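Prompt: I keep going back and forth on a fold encoding question. Comparing notes only helps if you start from a blank page. Show me how you would write down a chain together with its backbone fold. Please set it down just below, with no commentary around it:
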Amino acid sequence: MIVIPREYFVTPDLKNVAYNDCPLRFPKMAFNISAPHMYALCLEKLNIQPGNVILDIGSGSGHLTALAGYLTGPGGLVHGLDLFDYIIEFSNQNIKNFLASRPKDAPPIDLSHVHFFKRNCFLPDPEETKYDRIHVGCCCPESRINYLYDLLKPDGILVTPFGDKLIKATKKNGQVTVETLLAVRYSDLTLPSDAEIKDAKKLLDIAKANKIIVPQTVIREQFRNLVDNPIFPDFVFIVEGKKVMAHRLLLKLRSKFFVDYFSRPDAADFLEISDTNCKFHIFTEFLRFIYSDNCMITDENVDQLRFLANRFEILPLLAKVDGKEMPGCTLIDQFEKLVGSEEFSDVSFTVEGTKSIPSHKLILAVRTEYFHRMFNSGLRESQTNNITIFDSTAENFKIVLHFIYTDHCTVTSENCVDLLELANFFQLDRLKAFCEKYWFDNINVSNAAHILSIADRFNAVQLKDFAMEFIFSHIQEVVVTDSFKELDQSVVTSILIRSVQRSK
């Protein structure tokens, strides 16, 4: 509070008492701010860490919100909530005034990650944000305390007045433990009316429908989890007498040592690591790098990882332990080179009757539930080395394979419908979202009904919701288009049902 003084967060008539250790009433704005010792106690109990995501409910003048922003640093995120525009404006202006007052030679303070919003904390958050720390400046009713607990991330901390006490609630392993800090008296949080809750939920549904969420890439995590995993293991390492299941494809892909080793006619199905300095947990960390480009490097294991990287010719890891990078040698770079390649291939696809596309069972099974089930079903498809693909061109199927191998692809107007159909068939949610995003960016009055029809046909839920909201917003123009007149009756019925639901 020395770094961010209280005087910048009070009205001009209160500046002469800004440093009194007592609550202050802002009569013209109809709210109070707590005494400095209460802010100090709350911040101490919140134990804010750099990078934390913070919620300050009843942020008032914005002082505690700004202090939280200072503690998180610019790598964090701080939200202040209040109920009135003039209070939000007052908070923002206070931070601007404080930053403008700092001497030019003072160490910089970045509060660009501190944001204020006008919203009742008990109304739905459009972003559905979860928080590491929550501070509440008013008394939470008993009927709503669980709502605040639900806003916490795992290991999150909530400090709030509750009844006649100030409490600290900590969430750990899904359970909340409560500690009483001291006796207090605060005014109650304002509860939203049923009508406000209903309107907020309707607006939230509309907001959700007006965006397409593309799932984050998980390809590295998928292969990292393959270390010592019984999905198609065909090789074993023995370290400290313990077996570690592994996969020849990934070993050969990442290391010339293993390419040469497995080409030997006398190559065994196991390799014992006899170096007495090689610990089991360090070797599994070494394998995690081979499988995902990522591993934990510590003072304890760095020398052993360097030894293993040298022995098995894992050059990207050798560069990493030395603080360098090797462009073009990532796992995804090497996967991309395998798309349609016969190198290490153990299965092929027949597309358009005659065209054969080589592929790799391990990558297919790890990346897609569809192929994982196929290769583990015990049926004919699990035994064959050739799979026939119907209803796709070779060009589009290669794009799907490229996505499976890299988690990325290019969606165009020429391939979008076909890729959406294939994404739905092969249960590729991220690829489906890429296609939905393409139509999201290219919708207009003329094609809106056509997009809705496509979304309905291929179970593209996000796109269907968005197309409907677009149609509702442009209903007069859309209903006279040819694409709307060509809609199936079932789709028109779904529009009418959604319209009735929105009007309730």
Q: What stands out?
A: The two ends are 49 Å apart (CA to CA). The domain at 6-209 is CATH 3.40.50.150 (Rossmann fold).
